[in-house]
Each structure stands twice: as C-alpha cells, then as structure tokens.
C-alpha cells in the first residue's frame, strides 16, 4: 500500500514540476455572462515571435511559466464561444481573467448539440443537475480511468452505495442507502431488464462490462413516470451512443492475481448440457453413461494470465440523420479464494453461540465476462426520431471447490482429529441477458410530444452437471508418538445437479407530454402507462450416485478407479425448483412539471396492478403447490427544486414505492444454494413491502467539475422482507418472512474539488435503520432450562452505519496525457444473517479497500494503462457478537479467542494486477 501511495505522489509531483519551474502568466477562463469556468479552453501565447500553447485545467485555471517580462499576445478558443484576443503586459507573476462570450444563440445551439460528449464528466454532472429526481452519475471517462472493470464495482464509488460480493470477491449486487438488493431494480437505457437468477428478481451487476457505458446512474427518488418497485432506488446503465464524429476505441490488457500460484482446472466439456430427464422420454432412467467423470479430472495451472479486450466504433451518416454505434467487450479473469467456516449453534443452557465444526474451503474460479451492443438511431426531422437498441451480455463461470471439515465436539481429541469429511465440487455456469428495444419520439402537434417503446428481454442461467464428490476419512493419534495418523479416503457419495432457468419479458411503454404556459410558469402535463408480461421457467434435477459394492471403496485421487451406480435414475421431477411463473404488471400515471423562476415542481401519482401466478412440481399434498397473488398500488410522488442562485439549489422529494417478493420465496421448497451455510425453505404467505420515502438535498456547483452535495433521507417500511434462521422440526432453515415495520434514515455528503490538474473526490453516508422482531431467549430455571419470546430491535439486514469513499485524482488529458487515481473505501459492519435467537445474528465485519489505476498517453492516439485491485487484500469476515467460551470444544481452535466475538467465516481473495494498451481515434 505504501509503495502505491508513494507512486501516486511521485507521478503527481513529477508532472506538477513541469508547471512550477518559473514565474509567468496565469489566471482563469470563464463564461462572460454566467461566470462559469470553462475547462479545456485552448490558449495561445505569442511573445517575441515565439508561440506557446496550453489548455485551461479542470477548474478553468491556466498557468504558463518561463515567460520574459514584457508584452505578449494572448488568444483563447472554446467551442461555441467567440475567439478572445488581447495584449497583456507580463511582469513577474501576472494574473488574468479571460471572459469568453458565447456566439449567437442559433449557432451556439448547433455547435453544442453536435459536439457534446455524453461520456464526459461535465455531461454527467450537468445531467444530475437538471434531473427531476435525486441522482448521482459516473461518466464513461471516469469509468475508463478508474480501477473498475464491471458495473458492480463502479457503483460502489457512488455515495450511499455498498456491495454484496460473489464467491470470488468481486462486486455483484448494489445496496443503496442500506436497502438490500431486493429493494432495487436495474435498468438499461431506462428500461427494466429481467434477472438470470432462478429464484430472485434482482439483477447481478457483475454480468455487465463497464466499458460499454456512456454513463452509470444511481437514482435515489422516483417520479410517477418511473416504475414503482424501487424503495432503495434504481441503477440505470446508459449505454454508448453514436458520437457526432466517427470514433474508434480499442484496448487490450493482461493481468495476474497474486494468489493464483496453483490454480485448479477441470474438464467440463463432456458433461451434458441438460439433465437426462429433460433430454429423454418420460420415465427414462439415467445410468452412469449419462455422467462422465471428466469433471473430477483436475489439474493445476501455475499463475494463469487474465485478459481483456474491448472495441467500439461509431459515428453519424446520411447528413447526420443516421447514428450507428457498435461495441464489444471481453474479460477473462482468475481468482483463487481461501476460506474457513465454522458451524455454529445456540447453547440451550445459556443462549450463547458455540462452534460445532470447522471447514476449510479452497476455490479456483475462472470468470469470463463478455458483452455486445448495437444502437441505431434515425432522425427523420426535428419532430420525429426512432431508435433501435440490441444488447447481449454473457457471464461464464467455472468453479472448483475443495473443502474439508471436522467436528469440534463429540469427544474429539482436538481440531483435525476424528471423523473428517472431504468434498470436491465443480460447476460451469452461464448467465445471459438479451435486450432489444425499439423506441420512437414524435412531435404529434405543436407542444404535444409522444414517446413509445416496444421491448423484448430475456435472461437465462444454465448450470449443467454440477458435480460433487464426498469422501470420508479419519485422523487418530498414535498412542506412542502422539502423531496424527490418517485412515484411507473412502467414497461416501457423489451428486450431479442440473439447474436451468429463463425469465422473459415482453413490455410496452407509451407516454404523452403537453407543454403549456400558465401565467409566467412553464407547465408540462404528462400521462402514460406500461404493460409487462413476464414468463419465468425453472427446471432442476439432482441425481445421487452411490459407490457400488463394496461400499467402502478407497479414493486414490483418480476417479476412474472407482465405480458408482445411479440411485435415483428418474431425477427429482418433484423438486420445487421445477416451476413456472407468470407475472403481468400494468401501470398508468399522471404527472405535472411546473417551472417558474427559481421553482421547479414535479408531482403526480402512479397506479400499478400486479398479477402473479405460479405452478410448482412439488407433490399435490404440499401447501402452495399452485398459487396466485393479485394486488393494486397507488403510488404518489412529488419533488420540489428551489434554485437559490445559478450555483445552488435545494431539492425536497417524497415518493411511495413497493417491493415485490422474489419468485422462489413464495414457492414451497426445501433446498437452495449449495454454497449457503444454511438451507432455505419457502413461504407462500409472503406479502409485498410498501414504503414512504423522503429526501432533502442541498446542491452547490461552484465551478467546472467541483460540487458539494449534502442531504438527509428517511424511509418508513411496512412488511419488510428479511431472511431469518428458524427451526423446523429437527433442522434449522433460512426462511423469508415479513417483519412488521421498519425505519431507515441517514445523512449523505458528497464532494469533488479540483486544483487545476489535481482533484479530491470524497463521500460519506451515515445510515441508521431499525426493525423490531421476536427472538428466542433461553434462560435457566429451578428445574432446568426454558425459553421465551422477546422483542429485539436491530438494523436491517445488509445495512452499514458508515460508508465512505475517498479518491485522490490527477487528470491531465491535454499536455501531459496522464490520469491517475488512488481510490479508497470503507464499509462498517452489517448484519449478514438474522438468527431466531437473541443476540445470535451473524455480522459481516467492517472492512476497508484500496484500488489504484493509471493511464499515460505514449503517442497521439496510443495509451498505456494499469489497474491494481484489492491492494490491502481485504478479507470477507463474519462473526457473532457473543464471546467465544470454548464450550463443548476439545483443544485450541484456530481463529477463535476466548472472550472475543465468536468467529464464523473468513474468505481471502488476494491482489489483482492488470496492464494494457489503448487506441483512440
């Protein structure tokens, strides 16, 4: 870490020294009318027949050294402004304010509209200022020079946003203002997309390559023309659009993960793409010929090399009527994850947590992320325009896991002794999202505007032939020497699991806006609606393979030496993950927007009707095999914006929103994620969550890219949905349920400040949430131990009290061609798993993360860049806030300290490096 901080300072210092050698001429370039700084202004200085050139910095400032005292000619040019010319007398250190005057309005509008860069920092900032919602954006240029490769990792830089990470440590789901991923929806160009997940609605953001975006928006409040199921907010990916001039961008990179010295690979090529039951006639009995053993034929690869490729090209044709943009991205990376997990339970004698087993897990994960998108737009005239957008996103994941666990109780001589279970697991998973949108914008008559969209989207996930091999052995102590003696590895069983899911949306949107004037106010009247038909299909099969006689076969590392027989050749056709669901959502809204002097008011209401039906393959005797839910919601909202002056504004907003249960949560089932620490069961009585949301934000934009945002928010939730550990019979399950009422409020601070080429970007969010639920308390009595229900108030699952980001920036695209960023983030502790027992919730420990990126221009159109992620090698850690007592455990246990919080889990991911080149035309 110290080396990278010093490197950042050194790069900045070397560059800064180029500007600080001698006295000269400096100052500020501003708009003559508004006083706004104009970054990137081209300035020519001519003295004694010699010309020198420079550009104004990110805050509009400029400085040139090495001039002699005397008179010089100065000339300044900026797109859309008249050329500035003057003679200036230089006397040691001279300062000057250059005021540029806009060209005539008609010409200025043509120039700005034709040349504006939708991927620039300035455009993203202006978009946030003009929005009629509370919103924060990250520009394409900001993404390009950041350490991040996926949309999920980009979104963590935005104020109030934290991440839930996947097994390999990369970001996967966004948590906005402490609201779990279930309270957020994902948009592509403002259109909601389905999820490839076979259980849930929320979309994994790690499937999207970040270099396909023009802008990433996090929307924190809603207006009536936006879909209403976003209590936490929404993530909108604005994809690359056709530039005004022909453009080509390409990049290639290679990288290395520091901890992948022995990366395990396997061959899944011979595996079936679908289960034997799905590809054969009814009644087919699978045999061992359906299950090749190649998945267990593994080998080690030393330091596999990650790779990245990207290409985009676009421009405008036919006298600027036709816009074309084509872009593609491919990323291939490797992760080697070390993990340790403790099984825990609650002591019925005193209610304290105690550990029961310890399991070591090693993961080798290859992830291939790719995306293609095309956008065509045709402008018939100023009143009629049509757009066609097509996108395909793909995420392939190959994962090998080896785990070994041992009991810590039952009279064992100590950790690592007694009966030990080993298991191998391999799977290949492919997630895909396809979206095509046809959109039109039409001026029907004077002041009456219509826009419409026809959308087809489909998300799929196929995880065929997930293969698991379970072994048992034993370790005993030699009576004479005390040394550990391991018994042979005997086969226990093998399982082969097939999961396949598709989620298809057919949607239509129609909106009308009528522009009018009432007195001195501009009033826009809007009405519209949408309809979506969603079809979801999930299939699942699990086959048990058992060793043939003799059943105590020894495993020598080569699975071909062992023999199995299929125990359930028919598969698991009655598993609850075999289900079909349809959901129809219809909506209509009315909205008015009033602009008058310093006031802007947007308000109205949205009506949504949801009709969900499902049919599961569970036996007829199971409650909830088939079911349906229909409900209606009226969702009002209002936003008032008051401009204090040209640089300052206040926003006050209110909106009502809902959160629908996930599909799999309402379908009866017993199972879930094989990686989960506890298995899940469904709850067909689950209700939707409703909420009222309030925001107040102060905005200050002093000059150029500088800004200060400060706000407060409050959310009141009815029937929030959370998962809790509950005992059902003799087993403990993870169950979704409604938990009465909850509140969530907090404070957000967000700022960026540039000092010519240097910048600081920082944000901090404090969030406090509270929900009261019933817990079980064990206590001692005169006759033994008893229990009772008590209420406990705690934070919402996934909510961190403190979230902060700090980035140190150096940005000079003109003279030196250097961009560098040192990004640091902190997330405080949060509840990972809710327990049914008092004070036994499992918490994720607070963590800090640091990343670094640098880009340097080598030639006119060639650049070299580097990215370093997870510099601090920050682990993922879980614990229970109960002191570890060692109750029932034999011997010392690693990671556990007497009197300290009970340790549950630790995953370590390592540092990742990437080095590449770019070409820009």
> Can you tell me the CATH topology of the largest domain?
Maltoporin, Chain A
Radius of gyration: 30 Å
Poorly predicted tracts of residues: 7-21, 105-115
CATH class category of the largest domain? Mainly Beta
Distance between the termini: 35 Å
Shape: globular
Total domain modules: 3
| Number of strand elements | 49
- CATH homologous superfamily heading of the largest domain: TonB-dependent receptor, beta-barrel domain
Mean pLDDT over all positions: 88
- By secondary-structure content and strand pairing, the structural class works out as mainly beta
The major beta sheet can be summarized as:
22 strands, antiparallel, barrel
How much of the sequence lies in strands comes to over 45%
Q: Tell me which CATH architecture of the largest domain applies here.
A: Beta Barrel
Number of helices: 7
Q: Portion of residues in helices?
A: under 10%
Oligomer: single chain
Your description of this structure?
- Its main location: membrane.
- It holds the Pfam family CarbopepD_reg_2.
- The chain has 921 residues and is mainly beta.
- The protein is globular and about 100 Å long.
- A hairpin with an 8-residue loop joins strand 43 and strand 44.
- The chain has three domains: 103 residues, Immunoglobulin-like (Sandwich); 131 residues, Ferric Hydroxamate Uptake Protein, Chain A, domain 1; 625 residues, TonB-dependent receptor, beta-barrel domain (Maltoporin, Chain A, Beta Barrel), CATH 2.40.170.20.
- The two termini are 35 Å apart.
